[in-house]
Design a protein that fits this description.
With 282 residues, the chain is of the alpha/beta class. Helix 4 links the parallel strand 3 and strand 4. Helix 4 runs parallel beside helix 6. It is globular. The termini are close together.
């Protein structure tokens, strides 16, 4: 009999609460584990502390999300290759089987040139799956002021204010470049206007990780509760449950706009209920 699909909670889903709060919610609600988002919050960068929390709350760390967001460009240094290697080491230390990584940014030319070889070498050495995530074009006006340096680089490459351009050196659809392992993010697919089912099929057996979330097709990345947007979340879940998918499904939803912890808990509970219902093995 095939094992149930592990359903985890991303620590990003409780922002602006912290990493320990994610463990608390996940433990209370009955999640199977955690995805550690490594970013500015100090505890997320302290792997010994995360291991302590994993033991304390009796929840495994299923995956590590490398610090590759714009807001985490200086977390664990400024060398993206070294940061990815450190993320893999963190996954090994925590017993996680997967590292989630975004494609390189346009201005990370050296990193982009060696990205595939770096992933291959790290996977061979560690046995950790490095799952490259599908992304989306961004409106450059979102970066002006907030991310002035990044916006300037995009503007010089033809992305004036309001333009929708890719910030990435490789395709926003990682299947265009071909990697051994992938993360499918349904909110990113919505923002990109991509067909999630077609992408799922192209990823095939290389799909190791699902960010179970939703989007309406807005120009910004929404990370809605699955079922609250326009993405084929039910179809994706049922397809994985019926097949040989052996990775994890991680709820990566936005709760930053809620006013109370009770509201956040309700969103995380509803997300888990959706996942349990539609990822159940036949």
């Amino acid at each position: 009999m095939r094992e149930d699909i592990a359903i985890g909670l991303s620590t990003a889903s409780v922002y602006p609460q912290n990493t320990e709060a994610a463990f608390q919610y996940a433990n209370d609600l009955g999640y199977d584990g955690i995805e550690l988002m490594v970013w500015a919050e100090p505890v997320s960068q302290d792997i010994d502390r995360v291991a302590f929390l994993s033991d304390r709350y009796h929840l495994p760390v299923l995956s590590v999300h490398a610090p590759c967001l714009l807001i985490s460009q200086r977390v664990w240094g400024r060398d993206p290759a070294a940061k990815l290697a450190r993320s893999v080491a963190a996954a090994e230390d925590l017993g996680a089987g997967t590292v989630v990584v975004h494609p390189p940014f346009r201005w990370q030319r050296k990193y982009a040139g060696g990205f595939r070889d770096l992933i291959d070498a790290l996977e061979d050495d560690s046995g950790i799956d490095i799952a490259v995530e599908n992304m989306f074009p961004v409106r450059t006006d979102r970066f002006f002021g907030k991310y002035e340096e990044a916006a300037g680089r995009m503007r010089r490459r033809g992305g004036g204010p309001g333009a929708a351009v890719s910030a990435f050196a490789t395709s926003i659809d990682p299947t265009d470049d071909g990697f051994a392992h992938y993360t499918l993010d349904l909110s990113h697919a919505a923002t990109a206007g991509a067909d999630a089912i077609e992408m799922l099929n192209r990823m095939g057996g290389g799909l190791r990780h699902l960010h179970l979330t939703d989007g309406s097709g807005a120009a910004v990345d929404e990370h809605l509760v699955p079922g609250d947007g326009s993405q084929p979340c039910v179809q994706v879940c049922k397809s994985l449950a019926a097949g040989n998918f052996s990775g994890s499904a991680i709820l990566e939803v936005t709760t930053s706009s809620v006013n109370t912890k009770a509201e956040r808990r309700e969103i995380l509970s509803r997300s888990l209920d959706f996942a349990r219902t539609h990822l159940e093995r036949p």
